[in-house]
Write a structure and sequence with these properties.
The complex is a heterotetramer of chains A (about 110), B (about 100), C (about 120) and D (about 120). Chain B is about 30% helix and about 20% strand. Chain B has about 100 residues and is an alpha/beta fold. Chain B has one domain: Hypothetical Protein Ychn, Chain: A. Chain C has one domain: Hypothetical Protein Ychn, Chain: A. Chain C has a five-stranded parallel β-sheet, sandwiched between helices. By secondary structure, chain D is α/β, with parallel strands linked by helices. Chain D has a single domain (about 5-120), classed as DsrEFH-like (Hypothetical Protein Ychn, Chain: A, 3-Layer(aba) Sandwich). In chain D, strand 3 (about 80), helix 2 and strand 4 form a beta-alpha-beta unit. Classes of the chains: A mainly alpha (about 110), B alpha/beta (about 100), C alpha/beta (about 120), D alpha/beta (about 120). The interface of B and C includes residues 82, 91 and 96 of B.
């Protein structure tokens, strides 16, 4: 199984780089995964990541992009509640890419 | 509406549940539910009662497989798989009470 | 008429796969179209080409493959359910394809009747 | 999409003992993306899926009951519970973790009859 090394500690990931043990997530791991995705983390990125983690904590699922977009708009204002904004932050998709950084399960892409 | 039941009503509650909410319509007994269509079980009286409000069909290949083809309760309509298809086609919708 | 079928149980363990197959066959014989069979839950196990039943038993997996080949029936295996149970492209029998749950919803939208077979 | 159909998910199985309840919920979440008229019906042991206070640590299984509370955000707002099923299990609406509409058995049957697609797992 692939591993990533962050601050001298090894973390198991799946072949696509999603964290295996979700409980091991921390901000340094998130930053590391972000670099592998060519993302430069800003406050706006963290806002989405933290929101995703809170959502997962509460509902035990990662929200569908449509649902995430709506919820982000409700919480942080309409200018952020649109998919263009989220795709600018996470060009490979707020579902796949943001979930990976947030240490959430890989969306099974069921559509 | 067509209700499809596939479990033996002698040991499972899905036929009862179906009858609890269903006032009319059609019921098709398939797989282990076909035991309800055979004469002589403790359910026979109840089946006669039920036949007053809903129409009951039974998938004969399943009843034959279980050695009870000669005990079909009068008034229950035997169908083959083609008849099963016809029943689904003729109903607005169907629900499998799994 | 256009039919959609859902199979929720694996082959051999439960009769539902047989019932679903015989229903499909009868529907096609009557001139109906079986638009898609969607395999969900343990039903995804209908799709493994590694199945090897004894020669005097029906070959459920081959039977589905043949139905797809002869009548163009779309056999879809749910990806999430398949990943859970070790069904992958590598061990997929001919005629089956792995796709998303949306294909099940689409079956409900596109067909005239959706019939569920399961436990 | 040409037309909107009435989809009903009929949940009659308890959680954890089998996977049906969890995988059924997964279909519901996907269906939300298709803009259909979706409702969920809970009958028989299916009402146990909505019981408050599920704690699954001890069986090393994911507790998916909080996901029912996310349905609202997915615009799935029609959750129906059959009154008799609740009563037979000594439960009341107050025991459930989401807001539902309680229907008696006849109303439930009528609602099922009005659907275009009924999915049960």
């Amino acid at each position: 199984m692939p591993q990533i090394e962050v601050n001298g500690k090894n973390y198991e990931t799946d072949e696509e780089g999603y964290l295996i043990n979700l409980a091991e997530w921390n901000m340094d791991v998130a930053k590391y995964i972000a670099t592998t995705e060519n993302l430069t983390m800003t406050d706006n990125h963290w806002e989405v990541i933290n929101f995703l983690r809170e959502y997962y904590d509460e509902y035990q699922i990662a929200p569908a992009v449509r649902v995430l977009t709506k919820a982000i708009g409700k919480k942080f204002g309409a200018e952020k509640g649109n998919s263009q904004y989220l795709y600018e932050l996470f060009p490979y998709g707020p579902g796949k890419q943001a979930c990976k950084v947030a240490g959430l399960p890989k969306p099974t892409g069921c559509i | 509406m067509l209700h499809i039941i596939n479990k033996s009503p002698l040991s499972n509650g899905s036929l009862d549940s179906c009858l609890r909410v269903t006032e009319s319509g059609e019921i098709l007994l398939i797989e282990d539910a076909v035991y309800a269509a055979a004469k002589g079980s403790f359910l026979e009286g109840k089946m006669h009662e039920v036949m007053g409000k809903v129409k009951i069909h039974v998938l004969m290949p399943d009843l034959e497989a279980r050695g009870l083809a000669d005990r079909l309760i009068a008034g229950i309509t035997p169908v083959d798989y083609g008849g099963f298809v016809d029943l689904v086609a003729a109903s607005k919708n169907c629900q499998s009470w799994l | 008429m256009k039919f959609g079928i859902v199979v929720n149980e694996g082959p051999y363990q439960h009769q539902s796969s047989d019932s679903a197959y015989l229903f499909c066959k009868a529907a096609i014989e009557k001139g109906h179209e079986v638009w898609r069979v969607f395999f969900y839950h343990d039903g995804v196990n209908n799709a493994t080409r590694l199945t090897e039943p004894p020669q005097d038993d029906r070959n459920i997996v081959n039977r589905w493959s043949k139905l797809a080949e002869e009548h163009g029936v779309d056999l879809v295996v749910c990806v999430a359910a398949a990943l859970r149970r070790g069904i992958r492209d590598e061990n997929l029998a001919p005629g089956f394809r792995i796709s998303g749950l949306g294909q099940l919803v689409e079956s409900g939208i596109q067909t005239d009747r959706l019939v569920v077979f399961g436990d | 999409m040409s037309e909107i159909k009435k989809f009903m998910f009929v949940n009659r199985k308890a959680p954890y003992g089998t996977i049906y309840a969890l995988e059924s919920l997964e279909v519901v979440l996907i269906t939300a993306a298709f803009d259909q008229d979706v409702s969920l019906a809970f009958l028989d042991d299916g009402v146990y899926q909505l019981k408050k206070g599920q704690q699954t640590k001890g069986i090393d299984t994911k507790n998916f009951s909080p996901t029912f509370r996310a349905l609202d955000g997915y615009d799935i707002e029609k959750l129906y519970v059959e009154k008799e099923s609740l009563a037979l299990r000594g439960l009341s609406e107050a025991d459930l973790l989401v807001d539902v509409t309680v229907l008696d058995r006849k109303e439930m049957g009528k609602l099922m009859g009005q659907q275009d697609v009924v999915l049960s797992f």
